[in-house]
Amino acid sequence: IANPAPQSGVALLTFDDAHRSNYEIAWPMLAARGFRATFFAVAGWVGRPERMTAAELREVRQAGITIGSHGFSHRPLTKLSSKDLDEEVRRSKGVLEDMLGSSVDVLAIPGGFMNELVGERVAAAGYRHVCTSRPGWGYPDFLVNRLSVTSATPLRTFRNLAAGDPRELRKMQLLFRARQAAKKFIGVAGYEWWYRRFGSKA
Length: 202
What we know:
By secondary structure, the protein is mainly alpha-helical.
């Protein structure tokens, strides 16, 4: 993301939350294949149980992994006042930059909650690129759509997405809209509880 150059057949790999599995599993596999990626860290979670430490973030950054912000506390940005929104995106940027000793200019939107005000305040805070949760191809200058691939993603689905199958993309877009509607209806915490209990087994 740090030096974007849209090209056919090129994929950008991103990992949200800086979970320990990013360091212990994903990073060794990436390094073995000569791949780079972006790890998005929640600044206020660094060093917590099951999260990467500051030393680990510095280690992977020095090895070519880009470190981006995923907010300071992972709160939905669209639910915050303008003051709290500025605090969330600016504080996370500052904390991570102090931690890493380098610039942090990419942000992944927590929970996928994005609107015009969030885009304006994130740009004003000094971020050059924002990764959304909205499924899609393309590589805009500021907003970057992504395709979510998790442990629950069937191999067939992954292959179809990698091949650029528009039908698979449309299905993913419909599911995204349904998830966003559910989060608005029952709240983010309620949705995450439901997903841990039932969704991840679907």
